[in-house]
Amino acid sequence: MLARDDHTPVDWGARAAALAPMIAAAGDRIEAERRIVPEVIAALHDAGLFRMLLPAALGGGAADIVAFNQVIETIAAADASTAWCLAQQVASTQTAGYLDPKIAREIFAAPDGAVAWGPPSGAKAVVVDGGYMVNGRWRFASGSEHCPWLGGHCAVFEADGKPRLDQHGRPVMRTMLFRKDKAKFHDIWHVIGLRGTGSNAYEVTDLFVPEAYSYWRDHPADRRGDEPLSAIPLLTLYGMGFSGVALGLARACLEAFMKLAEIKKPSPMHGAPIPLREHPTVQARVAEATGQLQSARAYLHELLREFWDAATAKRAVSLEQRAQLRIAITGAIEQACGVVDFAYRAAGADAIFNGSPFERRFRDMHTVTAQGQAHLSNFEGAGQALFGIEPSQRL
């Protein structure tokens, strides 16, 4: 927690918790409309949550990354789609540290300031006088319904059509930032979970983007100032947020099952007709699931504090610390999925009906695990690093 102008600490967790009942009540509409409904977006903006990581100099809350993870967990327990979009938009404010402050304020400090984008997809930015001519199509723009700005990650090409290469012979990439009304959208987001994120595809054709509205997250020369947020890789920030989504889903599922177990009794053919809470197997499994969840959260928070301390002290993190954080992020998602699966299965037929406390969270959780931050291959690179081997993939 960091201070407001009046030097009173901001309790970001309390702000998120205050919004949770309203967000949960909007869950059915969010699911049905496949977007975060306007009143929820307005409430998140009013609470400053979209700008919680943005530096104070740009009108942000300058919160730390532990608070970020905790806020996302709290919102995810109410509605995972809302938490997913919030995580992506909050993490993306890291971009501000790579832009001219005037442009950063234009994009992020406005009352509705937020940017959405999808992963690189072969889009091209051709160098022209004053900027780039951009053509491309991207997928998975979570939250694009409520974001006035979009980004497009592009490979850079010279005016003669040749790709621009860095000193290692690799293609140069840049992110182009432009108003949403410059893009054409394609409704592709028909999926089993996280339906409310509205993660549709978008494209632009012959769009001019000024040089000042472009940057690249891995290009140190683009970084301005020394804010701790911009020292943390953007993809790592995504992991910090998305692991919070998983933890929130798991906590809500486990709490729902424990509430159900107070009253649910198995059929006579499956055991004594007593509430599930009194069955030794259920008691043991709930204890095990609680340990999984709490351990994953504690390990993750420990690494988040290490990373934030290093960023604020302008100290580089070691390869081992990067490996540990990757283990903590992917491990938290993996453990959370296990807890959700347990609660869903243990709830029996009560879990399978639309509107139960379990079925949407089960679908959402298994959609979370399809994202790169949850891939089990992440453990491979982390294990290589722990052995002192340069990892084959970015940590």
Give a short synopsis of this structure.
It is built from eleven helices and eight strands. It has 395 residues and is α+β, with helices and mostly antiparallel strands.
Search tags:
Butyryl-CoA Dehydrogenase, subunit A, domain 3; 3 domains; Butyryl-Coa Dehydrogenase, subunit A, domain 1; 44% helix; Butyryl-CoA Dehydrogenase, subunit A, domain 2; alpha+beta; 395 residues; single chain; 8 strands; 13% strand; 8-stranded mixed sheet
Mean residue pLDDT: 95
Mind telling me the C-alpha Rg?
22 Å
- Using DSSP, what is the number of strands? 8
CATH class of the largest domain, anyone? Answer: Mainly Alpha
Q: What CATH architecture label of the largest domain applies?
A: Up-down Bundle
The succession of helices and strands, N to C, reads HHHHHHEEEEEEEEHHHHH
- The number of helices is 11
Strand content: 5-15%
Main beta sheet:
8 strands, mixed
Low-pLDDT segments: none
Q: Helicity range of the residues?
A: 40-55%
Output the CATH topology of the largest domain. Butyryl-CoA Dehydrogenase, subunit A, domain 3
Whole-number count of domains:
3
Terminus-to-terminus distance: 27 Å
Q: How would the global form be characterised?
A: globular
Q: Briefly note the structural class of the backbone.
A: alpha+beta
CATH superfamily of the largest domain: Butyryl-CoA Dehydrogenase, subunit A, domain 3
